[in-house]
Records
---
Amino acid sequence: MPAKYGVPSDADYNQRLAEFEARIHRGEKIEPGDWMPEEYRRQLIRMISQHAHSEVVGMLPEGAWITRAPTLKRKMILIAKVQDEAGHGQYLYHAAETLGVSREAMLEALLSGKAKYSSIFNYPTLTWADIGTIGWLVDGAAIKNQTMLAACSYGPYSRAMVRICAEETFHHKQGKEMVLLYAKGTPKQRQMAQDAINRWWWPALMMMGPHDADSPNSEVLTRWGIKTKSNDTVRQEFINEHAPEILEAGLTLPDPDLRYDEATGNWMHGPINWDEFWQVVKGNGPMNKERLEARRRAHDDGAWVREALEAYATRQTAVAV
Amino acid sequence: MDTQWSRWEVFKQDTPNKPHQAVGSVHAADPQHALLTARNVFARRPQAVSMWVVQADDIFSWTKEELAESKAHRAESFLALSPQPSPLSSYAVFRKTSHKRSMTFVDYVGEVKARSPEEALEQALATFTDTEALSWWIVPTDKVYRSDPSQETVESWFAPARDKTYKQQQYYATIGSHVSKHKTGRENDDEE
């Protein structure tokens, strides 16, 4: 089978690259089996596997609150949401596998601590109001990013994003509803909601990644239609939607520089603390160790289920023969 | 390193009048395990009435680009299994026909009889000519494992997703309105 992943040293690389870029320019989706630059494949595996790991680790901060949900209805909603995150991890691992990376290799990278996932999940969930705030702000930021990625040029990634966005809109809405109810609630509830907004606002803004000027992969990702909007553009969309709604609810935002700019119609934010961002990325966030330990424990505790399933399958095969 | 078992491609049928569509894959130890996992991963929302699973190695795929180059790529296990043309057998044919935004890949279009997957592809190209295909999948029909079509199974597998209305964004429609219009007080929403 000829290599489908082209490298610049290939004799026909430039010609094929031109055809590939023309396809993307025409709005065609690249599918498994089509020719693609090795660098396109590498960037996609990096992004999609990190995205998959984020969905899986993202279950942990919320899953811890399932037993403490204040009402049966809220518990059912939270269970459904955490179950969705597990499913979204599966969709994304599938998309990455179409590029020739194995599920085993990706899981190994996550469990060994080698793989990265979204830093937002290395912050603690201190009160029940955090659960609503995560839905509203963290899922809100994720949806902005995922809506952008749904338009991406790689078919399997685009399809996973379309499915995820359709499901995740409920995560965003249930979170917004919870925070708005608390904002109209007792003084204690209002204080809990405000405290959660104060803690999650900045980490949510960091979710879109470094400023465009400091985002080394952006140029090639944009040229090949993987990213269809820049980090700062997506961040601005998120702020423009959420800042007025939060203020309207009678809550405040922890940014003294935040102001509405009449000329551009944008809500301008103050400086983001990128030192904190990089510290968390490097593993020094408040919860990095706990998250990885919880993930490993879940994997190890599930070993007997995997063994039982395998033994059953082996016996069925033996019976069939 | 733990094994994650084989990969199985999953096809979901939304309603009896629609074709089964490729939605993604799961890892599983056997067909029943694959179907059950497929149900948990891909039918958490309506609609679904039936699911199929096929082990990834049993799928023969060609993109339009590959066909143009006549460089069909094949599942290696099957090549090893059938060095000689086999007797006439049935193949399920799936294809993708649009670049439009979608959450599904190839759709089931029908069956053909052939002696090899390559011949089945030729049959498919000659049979399903109404519109141009961007990708083809050819699967030996006996490698397609199907969910139980009995009413009882269909209900128990797929009805719960319909009843869990809190997973639908319309359930939260009231919060789409301007927040100042909200008269809701403290949270006591489980008594409804």
---
Amino acid sequence: MAGKTLYDKLWESHLVKDLDDGTSLIYIDLHFLHEVTSPQAFEGLRLAGRKPWRAGANMATPDHNVPTTLDERSQGVEGIVDPVSKIQVQSLDSNCNEFGIDEFEIDDPRHGIVHVIGPEQGRTLPGMTIVCGDSHTSTHGALGSLAHGIGTSEVEHVLATQCLVQKKAKNMLVRVNGQLNPGVTAKDVVLAIIGKIGTAGGTGYTIEFGGEAIQSLSIEGRMTVCNMAIEAGARAGLVAVDDKTIEYVKGRPFAPNGETWEKAAAAWKGLVSDADADFDAVVDLEATEIVPQVSWGTSPEMVAPVTGVVPDPADAGNETRQNNYQQALKYMGLEAGTPIQAIKLDRVFIGSCTNSRIEDLRAAAAVVKGRKVADSIKEALVVPGSGLVKKQAEEEGLDRIFTEAGLQWREPGCSMCLAMNADQLGEGEHCASTSNRNFEGRQGFGGRTHLVSPAMAAAAAVHGHFVDVRELQLH
Amino acid sequence: MKKFIAEDGLVMPLDRANVDTDYIIPKQFLKSIKRTGFGKNLFDEARYLDKGLPDADCSGRPLNPDFVMNQPRYESASILLARENFGCGSSREHAPWALDDYGFRCIIAPSYADIFFNNCVKNGILLIVLEENIVEELFQETNATVGYRLAVDLADQTITKPDGSQIAFTIEDSRKNILLNGLDDISLTLQNKDDIQAFETQWQERSPWLFTTTGS
């Protein structure tokens, strides 16, 4: 009999029971909540007279809607100018209060993007099942936990039952063989993977990312990769546990300690796929062939190497795909054959649950240090993923490097990744963004998003157009 | 939960692959803390020429005449014909809420994103998966015939065309059962309360570190 994949092991260890209709009841260890997808779930509990099954299994923070200017943030919830956003954040506060759920409120020093603070606090642990009403919950798979996004009805279901009714996904292994070249980052790896398998390539699968290049990534880099598993259609992405994982977790506020730590760390070592495990699909990429990526269209699969050109729809394959490319080019205001490095930019955004951790900020700062943002750039934002990331960056002097170069240093939150707050693109504006989605209107009505790594975004800020970060001298 | 039994309705074609949930309902409308009222902002950025604001009256907004939904022939459509990977991206359940609120009860496409699929079942919207060539045929027939309707029957798992011919579709038994009976799945899960408690007890004994709820 073939061995088990990591996903098989996580599934089996959380299986409460198989139900008669082919679905299974899966126990959920940890549930993150934020202000946008939870109010209707709490209302559902109230209407049905239900209470959370285990309040302590939940952790909440407002992140999607929060303003990022110091002006608004220095006054806490009361400072939120947008009255609709304010009500949503207040609703989260009052719901958490009513149902006894731990919340890092907007003015808590540990506040931040839910997918940044979970691992940062050691709430996210290897071997857990984790869900959140947010598709980028896949991020937490970087620590060897089974984590995925759910809708609001399922948020209510998890609150009430600590379980989800699920059908097991298929297993996919994406192997990135060999070592990455300097200047090529986790973001480029995941964009290259999505470019290869497509935005629906992982639908119905849990993707395990493996191979030397993935093993060589830091835990933060692995989070960037798993974060975007959903952009390849897979609800969950995973990386096997190794020494780096255990080292990362050790000493974090919610991590076990003492004797329990020893037991936990021993158990976590088994969170790898068996050598003879069977995968339903295997995809191989060669790390040395990956160069910095830039998305040119309106789907994360529409990527090109920074050395390349905007593709011709005629080469896109079938008619649906050709139409898709044409619609994308029209929206983006781009012509086929345009060199990627000729795309002029109006704004730059460094942040989001994909790329707002300390390593991301260090990489961006190394590029802009001693340089200035190009005059043609209207605004360049750096939005740290959490209050603690912000503090760390300030201790390292990164904030001064950014502000001296002409970038704005903001308060933590989701910000311009989805532009629910005031951080938005104007109509027709092109943005070099370290976020995860380049959908139409994602960063603002009529806005045009190009997904890149933090170093590439920083380089674009300095030059006003895309440049190959591998050719820049770093400081 | 809302039931889906059958739908005999006008078909609207949306000829676009990888329709994401941002496209279905843009983020500014996610600030609502209600489940209803999203229909007027369904496909907002494609449907209107101006930028939509939450809580704004949409009756006077300029419509995009090129968008399929604004063509009088598709007014009151309840079946949406779509392309591959419909509903990808964000997990926002506001997407099915908006589709339902507008009046779409059923979607036909070659494939859907996983989270969106689950969210639709929870809201009594039937998603039918058909082979790409059959979907293409339906696109051609819908485009060619004003007032093109389909009759969908979930119990029989059939779609009946205007000429009386039928297309069979498959659906998982669990989803079919939930849709036909409009079951409250939280109540269903809580029927297994003892099993959940038993699991939790042994799980906590084996992995106590997963039950830590206070930080140091």
